[in-house]
């Protein structure tokens, strides 16, 4: 079997006169350990081993120092920031921002970008326009593309946007100066320093051999090329023709570049190895419905390893660390040795949740007659934890029962202290300066309690280490006073990123590792979990203050490079593997539909061409394709009663236009969502996708106009009002929308990271454009804005139990009156059509592109008129499609239009009312017909993005 590290060790052994005179440099320590291990097995007599280093060791060795830890550096950065900024925010607010800035400084130095130019040009758009002489044509074009998206916005917003970055250039310089004085450094600084003084490096006594590199930073490239050219160093590439020779294959991105280089090019073998395609590998893919199913599948795949085969020839790759424990728990009994190499987030550990709850408790204490009383919620969490229950379960149960039975809101310290020593320790009121010693003592107590649970103890140890570091850093930084809130926020922020590093004995037993940990290692059998987009490769998201195009123009890595690194890591695993099992999930996770990794799709296409019969697609979850129908049982009919008006004139709930659209799209989907109550997972995402973007724009407009009404005490908006609205009120309205949406605190300016800040400014552009359109149609009178008003009506239908009234309700984004016409406005972010051929088409569930937006806005007409039966003004359905607001001929109105015929504008819902009611009535009568089951749609296209497709097997 091919094994890059072993083969190279063999080669070095054969070609080197004395291993003592050799330094082997690898990308990481783990590859170094494996290399040494292979070398050890190849040598049969006592001899000196070569020196094995990581590339980091080489740089730090020449720099004569190692970088300081991030926390210390962020403190230092904050101090410098404070000198530059008259009113710096508190340290905890600065912390995340500081992490991002530090990461950017690191990139700027690692990739030898000119910090002055880069930060200057981020901040000074004017200079960008005038002095571009130092940039190449390509760079100028990239930067222009970026700034052009802001050109349509007014000056003030541009300035505010730019201010965000203005501090960075002076901060970079001042930070460098302060590090020089303190003697501290971050890694990029050391790398740049070494790269700038390569000419001063003396020719080493030993021969340097670089192994297994794929993507260099600029500084690494400079150093390695210098060593090859000046000192005769060697480099061995872990490369394959499969992805290198295919110009479209992202995995070969770097190699293709290096092969063109005058120094690196000649170091590649004349003929690239063709490992992937020359092998008869068994490649299988598996679709599993849920993430957790993967663990069982891994277990059964491991069962099949032949007894005589060494376990270390198999690796399980876990792109998502959350699968680690399920996989460990599903291992077959015969696997008695496992080596885990990956980081597991401490924040997922139960003991961290406990510590967090302890701190949370401190935030809700009241004092009565000198005695602290604790708020019930955190107390309930703590008393329900395994830690306190394991000490005194009876007591915990007793107090919990009392809280419930007596509806206790606060519980006294005296009462809680009765549980025992640990309870006395935990339940006390602390001042800010007592928090560090308190947590240290508590951790020690917990460690004692957990002495039989090595894993939890390890977590605790990791927490303890972090806490001690935090404490030491604070002790050095005397000017930072710590209040309780500050401490709690900082504790959370620092621990967010901490991982418990699992590093077992290499090469013993089954190997379980993260993606990047597998670099340079070769295995006979590879099992990869989570082969889903967003997991492997991970979703895009460089957390950086520097926008993509600027990063790219200045040679800093962007997503494309990250993708190439992940793609290489994936394809490299295929170099040696004789058996590859790749598992992906089809279920939606965190609201995202389970989409299989593009690597799988690529391989299917690529290998189909050359090795078609070698790719075996085995969906283990071959779901039944039998149609699903849910008959209307008495209990379902009972649930449907909730939408009907009862004898008291009220209904429990009402049909919204979305519910009716769902019913029209698919009866089963309606059943699952509205009757069975199977909710779609709520998505918590910092990514700004189109849906989030639309919501943010929509909330911003709501904030803007409701703010106007509050300030001016009038609902009439004149054309003259728009100048001020556009100049002064867009920014706060958008800012508030973003903060509310992401639950960020007010005034926390720095928490809007690069992405959100960019989104904020882009949304401002859209909102401004809507206002420009509104100004052109003003004056108009605002009647209602979103939440503040619900419109409702009822519709009589015939059921088996006689005539009944169905409740209908809806929230209209905005209702206004323009020239005597009432506009029922819906803001949309997608590409919704504003034409429909006729009412039949709106109710035709067989149509793939039924116009839901038209159905919805006509429904608004029905409920508006129902709420205001006295109304005689025309009701005009209006769709503000944000994607179209920049079009010169933007027209938000609805048209009845067939094919290429000229459309007829819908001027008044009332013209459609009788027919619309008839259609709706028919639809609702069908819904209440016990004979018609909830069945699956026949239009498969509708299943594509349906969250229930797992259940349906569609
Ligand atoms: S997957 Fe298709 S059939 Fe199933 S509920 Fe969704 S839309 Fe209906």
List the topology elements.
Layout: H1 4-15, E1 22-26, H2 29-42, E2 51-54, H3 55-63, H4 70-84, H5 91-110, H6 115-123, H7 125-130, H8 137-151, H9 155-166, H10 168-182, H11 187-196, E3 207-211, H12 218-231, E4 234-236, H13 241-244, H14 253-260, H15 275-278, E5 282-288, H16 293-303, E6 314-317, H17 324-329, E7 338-345, H18 350-362, E8 365-368, E9 371-375, H19 376-383, H20 386-405, E10 410-412, H21 413-417, H22 421-426, H23 435-449, H24 454-476, H25 484-496, E11 499-503, E12 510-513, E13 525-528, H26 548-553, H27 559-572, E14 579-585, H28 598-611, E15 615-617, E16 629-630, H29 634-641, H30 657-665, H31 667-675, H32 690-712, E17 716-717, H33 721-741, H34 754-777, E18 780-785, E19 791-799, E20 802-810, E21 814-818, E22 821-828, E23 835-836, H35 839-842, H36 852-867, E24 875-881, E25 895-896, E26 904-905, H37 913-927, E27 934-935, H38 949-952
Parallel strand pairs: 1-2, 1-3, 3-4, 5-14, 5-15, 6-12, 6-13, 7-12, 13-14, 22-24, 23-25
Antiparallel strand pairs: 7-11, 8-9, 9-10, 16-27, 17-18, 18-21, 19-20, 21-22, 25-26
Helix pairs in contact: 1-2, 3-11, 4-5, 4-10, 5-11, 5-25, 6-9, 6-10, 9-34, 11-12, 18-19, 18-25, 19-20, 23-24, 30-31, 32-33, 32-34, 33-34
The protein binds iron/sulfur cluster.
């Amino acid at each position: 079997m091919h094994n890059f590290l072993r083969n190279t060790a063999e080669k070095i052994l054969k070609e080197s006169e004395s291993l003592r005179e050799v330094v082997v440099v690898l990308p990481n320590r783990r590859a170094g350990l494996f290399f040494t291990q292979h070398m050890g097995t190849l040598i049969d007599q006592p001899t000196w081993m070569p020196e094995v280093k990581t590339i980091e060791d080489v740089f730090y060795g020449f720099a004569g120092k190692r970088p300081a830890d991030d926390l210390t550096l962020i403190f230092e950065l904050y101090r410098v920031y404070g000198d530059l900024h008259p009113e710096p925010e508190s340290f905890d607010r600065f912390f995340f921002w500081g992490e991002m800035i530090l990461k950017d400084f690191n990139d700027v130095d690692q990739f030898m970008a000119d910090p002055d130019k880069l930060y200057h040009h981020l901040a000074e758009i004017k200079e960008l326009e005038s002095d571009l002489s130092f940039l190449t044509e390509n760079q100028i074009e990239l930067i222009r593309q970026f700034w052009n998206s802001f050109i349509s916005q007014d000056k003030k917003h541009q300035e505010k946007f730019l201010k965000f970055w203005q501090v960075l250039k002076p901060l970079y310089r001042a930070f460098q100066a302060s590090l020089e004085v303190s003697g501290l450094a971050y890694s990029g600084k050391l790398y740049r320093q070494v790269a700038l003084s390569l000419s001063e490096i003396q020719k080493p006594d030993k021969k340097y051999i670089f192994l297994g590199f794929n993507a260099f930073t600029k500084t690494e490239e400079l150093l390695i090329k210098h060593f090859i050219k000046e000192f005769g160093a060697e480099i061995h590439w872990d490369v394959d023709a499969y992805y290198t020779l295919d110009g479209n294959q992202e995995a070969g991105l770097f190699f293709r570049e290096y092969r063109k280089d005058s120094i690196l090019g000649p170091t590649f073998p004349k003929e690239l190895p063709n490992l992937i395609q020359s092998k008869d590998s068994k490649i299988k893919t598996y679709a599993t419905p849920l993430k957790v199913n993967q663990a069982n599948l891994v277990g059964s795949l491991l069962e099949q390893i032949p007894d005589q085969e060494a376990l270390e020839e198999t690796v399980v790759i876990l792109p998502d660390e959350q699968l680690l424990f399920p996989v460990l728990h599903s291992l077959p009994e015969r696997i008695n040795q496992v080596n885990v190499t990956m980081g597991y987030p401490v924040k997922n550990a139960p003991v961290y949740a406990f510590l967090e709850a302890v701190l949370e408790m401190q935030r809700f204490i009241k004092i009565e007659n000198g005695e602290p009383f604790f708020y019930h919620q955190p107390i309930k969490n703590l008393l329900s934890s395994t830690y306190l229950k394991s000490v005194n379960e009876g007591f915990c149960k007793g107090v919990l029962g009392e809280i419930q039975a007596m509806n206790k809101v606060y519980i006294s310290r005296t009462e809680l202290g009765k549980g025992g020593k640990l309870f006395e320790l935990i339940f006390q009121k602390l001042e800010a300066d007592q928090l560090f010693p308190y947590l240290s003592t508590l951790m020690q107590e917990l460690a004692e309690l957990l002495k039989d649970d090595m894993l939890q103890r390890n977590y605790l140890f990791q927490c303890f280490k972090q806490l001690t570091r935090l404490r030491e850093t604070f002790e050095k930084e005397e000017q930072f006073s710590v209040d309780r809130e500050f401490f709690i926020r900082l504790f959370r922020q620092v621990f967010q990123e901490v991982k418990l590093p699992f590093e077992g004995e290499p090469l013993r037993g089954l190997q379980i590792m993260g993606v990047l940990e597998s670099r340079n290692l070769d295995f006979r059998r590879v099992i990869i979990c989570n082969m889903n987009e967003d997991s492997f490769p991970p979703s895009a998201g460089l957390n950086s203050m520097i926008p993509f195009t600027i990063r790219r123009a200045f040679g800093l890595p962007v997503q494309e490079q990250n993708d190439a690194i992940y793609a290489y890591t994936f394809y490299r695993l295929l170099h040696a593997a004789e058996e590859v099992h790749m598992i992906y999930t089809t279920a939606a996770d965190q609201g995202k539909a389970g989409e299989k990794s593009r690597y799988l799709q690529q391989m299917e296409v690529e290998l189909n061409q050359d090795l078609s019969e070698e790719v075996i697609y085995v969906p283990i979850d071959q779901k039944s394709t039998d149609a699903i129908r849910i008959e209307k049982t008495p209990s379902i009919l009972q649930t449907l009663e909730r939408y009907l008006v009862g004898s008291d004139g009220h209904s429990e709930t009402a049909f919204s236009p979305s519910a009716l659209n769902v019913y029209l799209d698919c009866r089963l989907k309606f059943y699952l969502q509205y009757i069975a109550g199977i909710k779609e997972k709520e998505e918590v995402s910092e990514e700004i996708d189109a849906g989030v973007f639309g919501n943010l724009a929509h909330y911003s407009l709501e904030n803007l106009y409701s703010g106007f009404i509050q300030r001016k005490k009038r609902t009439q908006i004149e054309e003259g009002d728009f100048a001020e609205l556009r100049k002064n009120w867009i920014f706060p309205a958008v800012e508030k929308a973003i903060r509310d949406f992401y639950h960020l605190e007010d005034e926390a300016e720095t928490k809007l990271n690069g992405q959100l800040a960019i989104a904020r400014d882009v949304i401002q552009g859209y909102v401004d454009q809507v206002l420009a359109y509104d100004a052109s149609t003003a004056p108009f009178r605002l009647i209602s804005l979103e939440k503040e008003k619900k419109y409702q009506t009822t519709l009589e239908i015939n059921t088996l139990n006689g005539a009944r009234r169905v409740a209908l309700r809806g929230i209209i984004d905005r209702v206004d009156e323009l020239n005597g016409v009432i506009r029922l406005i819906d803001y949309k972010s997608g590409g919704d059509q504003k034409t429909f051929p006729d009412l039949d088409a709106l109710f035709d569930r067989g149509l793939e592109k039924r116009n839901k937006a038209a159905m919805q806005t006509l429904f608004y007409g029905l409920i508006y008129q129902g709420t205001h039966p006295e109304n005689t003004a025309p009701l005009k359905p209006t769709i503000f499609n944000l994607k179209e607001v920049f079009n010169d001929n933007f027209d938000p109105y609805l048209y009845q239009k067939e094919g290429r015929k000229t459309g007829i504008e819908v001027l008044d819902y009332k013209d459609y009312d009788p027919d619309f009611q008839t259609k709706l009535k028919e639809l609702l009568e069908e819904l209440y017909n016990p004979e018609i089951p909830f069945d699956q749609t026949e239009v498969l296209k509708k299943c594509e993005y349906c969250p229930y497709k797992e259940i349906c097997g569609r």
